[in-house]
Amino acid sequence: MSGTVASSFRGAERLGRIKPSPSTAAAARVRELKAAGRRILDLTVGEPDFDTPDHIKLAAIAAIQAGETKYTPVNGTPRLRQAILGALRRTHGIEYSDAEIAVGGGGKQVIFLALMATVDPGDEVLIPAPYWVSYPDMVRANEGTPVIVQTSAESGYKLTAEQLEAAITDRTTWLILNSPGNPSGAIHTPDELEALAAVLRRHPAVSVLSDEIYSEISFTGSPAPSLAAVAPDLRHRVLVVSGVSKSYAMTGWRLGYAAGDPVLVGAINTLQSQTSSCPSSISQAAAAAALDGPQDFLAESVPVYRERRDAAVAGLAAVDGLTPLVPDGAFYLYVDCAALIGRTTPDGRVLGSDEDVTLHLLDHAGVAVIQGSAYGRSPFFRISFATDIDTITSAIDAIAEAVGDLR
Ligand code: PMP
């Protein structure tokens, strides 16, 4: 058997600190059930179900045909940088310069490089929970210490100024702020950002990694506000990270960017020059077309997400024992399932954790969701509404039935 071949592989110490992006018990169970021929309604997906708009695909094809198939500058083609500067101007009214822009293979890679460029062993990175699963491991991979700050229902699961003040130590290097948040969908208002800014002004050594990848998937009528725009005096301490994956349904193109302090951006670019040299030239051409071309796709897709959100919230809120947070942006619903803990399944198992709830929904409803423990806040589960409305409504009916069967 191939699995028995002896390996002399010895992982570096840093490898032992991290795990692959969550391959949970539920994910393994989804694969098992699907392999056994069972139909599973999958609400775990973290990417838009829409196709990349045609004008973006055509821009990529044109780039290939025009011979734009070579290395580009490490900080992207001049065309892409201009498009990024234009997008930041349009969404936040901020004027950045060329030297303040870094690009990479997705927002994820840019965040990783930003941490690699700045975090020394023992440096602390504040991560409000619930958080995107990758932050703590990205900090650990770079030998930093993730410091998880629990938020509360009263603040809509958003970090407050008091919590920030209490969490900062003389080792704090970064605060990671993700608005709209994955998995909460919470958006920080300008007043809430200003309250955080007031704390940050007292702690000049702390920088803010503002992950704004979902900023344009907002149900408030305007893009989620950025700390960099709300507190212009802190602009050089805020690294704005964004990309085209979510807004333009371009997850597979792998193109993200950051805007911030030119010295930090220079460091990110140095690391980029020694890792991938530059993101794909073709994806850069596509991303430029996405950012500075017609914006109809956003105008069309955001109302669709909003309708699905409303249907999902209404359906789940009607289930005794479930309390969905109403997201202001992104395409996830974070559902409080505390009332289900301690209930018993028809086959006699007592639900002791959100992982148990997730497995019950999978086995008895055929619905795949992700347990809150993956996001650092339990007992919750996350559903994605980046899938068609029929799947969402069928899944919620099935969830209601499986919850109704608990005793
Ligand atoms: N930040 C958050 C909060 C995300 O949910 C994701 C994607 N799951 C990313 C960053 C990274 O997106 P990408 O690398 O595709 O730009």
What does this molecule look like?
The chain is α/β, with parallel strands linked by helices and 407 residues long. It has two domains: 14-43 and 297-404, Aspartate Aminotransferase, domain 1; 70-293, Type I PLP-dependent aspartate aminotransferase-like (Major domain) (Aspartate Aminotransferase, domain 2, 3-Layer(aba) Sandwich), CATH 3.40.640.10. It contains 13 helices and 13 strands. The chain has helices spanning 25-35, 54-65, 78-92, 107-118, 134-141, 161-167, 190-201, 227-230, 262-273, 281-292, 296-317, 354-365, 389-404; strands spanning 41-42, 101-104, 124-129, 145-150, 172-178, 207-211, 238-243, 256-259, 323-324, 332-336, 367-368, 370-371, 380-384. A seven-stranded mixed β-sheet has the order 2-8-7-6-5-3-4, sandwiched between helices. Strands 9-10-13-12 form a four-stranded antiparallel β-sheet. A two-stranded parallel ribbon has the order 1-11. Strand 12 (370-371) and strand 13 (380-384) form a beta hairpin. Helix 2 (54-65) packs across helix 10 (281-292) and helix 12 (354-365) packs across helix 13. The longest helix has 22 residues, at 296-317. It is globular. Bound molecules: 4'-deoxy-4'-aminopyridoxal-5'-phosphate. 4'-deoxy-4'-aminopyridoxal-5'-phosphate is lined by residues 46, 106-108, 132, 178, 182, 211, 213, 243, 245, 251, 256.
